[in-house]
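ok new one. same drill as before - C-alpha cells go in, u give me an amino acid for every spot. 223 of them this time. try not to just spam alanines like last time pls lmao
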C-alpha cells in the first residue's frame, strides 16, 4: 500500500527534481516532460480545472457510488485492477448496481505521464488504464526517464493513439497542472491517505479483497 504524500512533499518531488537528471541522461523530449511536471506544482491560483473530466463507468442511476483513488505506479493498485476490479465490474458495474469513478493519485512524474497517456483519448481511458496496469512491472522498471516515456508511448500506440497525438498529450502543461491541483483538492476532501483507497457512498475505506468488497457493496444494496 502506497502512502499519500502531503501537498508540500509532492511539490518538492515534482518541482525540485534535480536528482532525476543525475540518474540518467534524458533526451530533449524527456527534459520537456520534466519541465511540465515542474510547472504543474507552481501554484494553482489560475488553474482551470473545468478541463478535468471525471472518468466513470456504470449506470448513472446506480444505487451505489464507488470512487477509487489509485496511482499508476502503485503495485497494490495494479494488483487490485488485475484481480478484484474485474470481478466488481462483471458483478456490480456492468449489472447496473454500481457507478464507478476512477481518480488518479500522483506520487511521482511517471504516474503523471501515465495519466496523460490514459487521458489522451477519454473514450479509451479505461482500456488504456488496464494496459498500463498490466504492463506496470515492465514500463515502470524500464530504467531511464527516456526509456519509461518510450514504454508509455508504446502503450498509447497499442491502444490506437497516434504518435503526434501522444506527443501533444504529453506536452499539455495546462492539463497536467489542472490534474495535479484536482488530485490534491479531492484527496484532501475525501481524507485519502494511501492507495488504493475507495469512497463508497461518501465513506472512505481502504483496499479490500473481493469477498470483503462484495460484502460491503451488498450491505449497501440491501439497505
Amino acid at each position: 500500500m502506497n502512502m499519500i504524500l502531503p501537498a508540500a512533499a509532492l511539490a518538492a518531488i515534482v518541482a525540485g527534481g534535480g536528482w532525476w537528471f543525475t540518474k540518467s541522461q534524458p533526451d530533449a523530449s524527456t527534459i520537456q516532460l520534466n519541465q511540465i511536471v515542474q510547472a504543474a506544482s507552481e501554484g494553482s491560483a489560475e488553474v482551470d480545472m473545468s478541463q478535468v473530466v471525471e472518468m466513470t463507468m456504470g449506470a448513472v442511476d446506480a444505487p451505489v457510488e464507488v470512487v477509487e483513488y489509485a496511482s499508476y505506479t502503485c503495485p497494490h493498485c495494479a494488483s487490485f485492477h488485475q484481480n478484484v476490479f474485474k470481478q466488481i465490474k462483471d458483478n456490480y458495474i456492468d449489472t447496473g448496481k454500481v457507478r464507478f469513478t476512477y481518480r488518479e493519485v500522483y506520487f511521482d512524474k511517471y504516474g503523471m505521464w501515465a495519466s496523460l497517456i490514459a487521458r489522451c483519448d477519454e473514450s479509451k481511458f479505461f482500456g488504456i488504464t488496464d494496459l498500463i496496469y498490466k504492463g506496470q512491472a515492465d514500463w515502470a522498471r524500464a530504467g531511464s526517464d527516456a526509456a519509461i516515456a518510450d514504454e508509455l508511448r508504446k502503450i498509447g500506440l497499442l491502444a490506437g493513439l497516434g504518435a503526434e497525438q501522444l506527443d501533444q498529450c504529453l506536452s499539455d502543461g495546462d492539463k497536467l497542472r489542472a490534474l495535479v491541483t484536482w488530485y490534491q483538492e479531492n484527496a484532501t476532501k475525501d481524507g485519502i491517505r494511501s492507495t488504493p483507497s475507495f469512497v463508497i457512498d461518501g465513506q472512505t475505506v481502504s483496499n479490500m479483497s473481493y469477498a470483503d468488497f462484495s460484502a460491503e457493496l451488498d450491505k449497501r444494496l440491501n439497505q
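DSSP finds twelve helices and seven strands in the chain. and btw The CA atoms of residues 118 and 129 lie 6 Å apart.
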